[in-house]
C-alpha cells in the first residue's frame, strides 16, 4: 500500500485496517513471546546455580593487620573494607593514617631472634 491509497480511504476503512493490523500483531507477539519463554526455560535448565542456590565464596587468605589503635592495641584494621570507628575518631582528632601504621620491621626482627 502506498501513502496515496491511505489518504483516499474512508475513516471506516482505516479503522478496519487498524483492527486487522492490531489482530495480526497481537498474534505474532504472543507467538514470539511463547518462543522466547521456551528458550528461557531451556537456558535456565542448563545454566549454573540459580538465584535460589547460593554459590560458595572463594576462600581468601587471611590479611595481616596494617593499622593499630594506640589507645587499645587489641583493635586493629587490615586497611580493607570500611574504616572502623576508632580509626575515624583518630583521624578526626588530627592523626594521620601513617601515624597508626603497625611497625612491621620490629615485629619481624623479634620473630627472627626469638
Q: How would you characterize the overall build of this protein?
A:
The chain has two domains: 3-46; 67-113, no CATH class. 53% of the residues lie in helices and 4% in strands. It has helices spanning 3-8, 11-46, 85-92, 104-113; strands at residues 67-68, 76-77. The mean pLDDT is 85. The longest helix is centred in the N-terminal third of the chain and has 36 residues, at 11-46. It has a two-stranded antiparallel ribbon with strand order 1-2. The chain is mainly alpha-helical and 114 residues long. The protein is elongated and about 90 Å long.
> Any low-confidence stretches, pLDDT <50, length ≥5?
none
Describe the biggest sheet?
2 strands, antiparallel
Assign the structural class, choosing from mainly alpha, mainly beta, alpha/beta, alpha+beta, or little secondary structure. Answer: mainly alpha
Number of helical segments?
A: 4
Q: How many structural domains does the protein architecture include?
A: 2
Mean pLDDT: 85
- Order of strands in the sheet with the most strands? 1-2
Percent in strands: under 5%
What gap, in angstroms, lies between the N and C termini? 95 Å
Q: Summarize the amount of helix as a percent range.
A: 40-55%
The ordered string of helix (H) and strand (E) elements is HHEEHH
Strands, total number: 2
What is the radius of gyration?
35 Å
Morphology: elongated
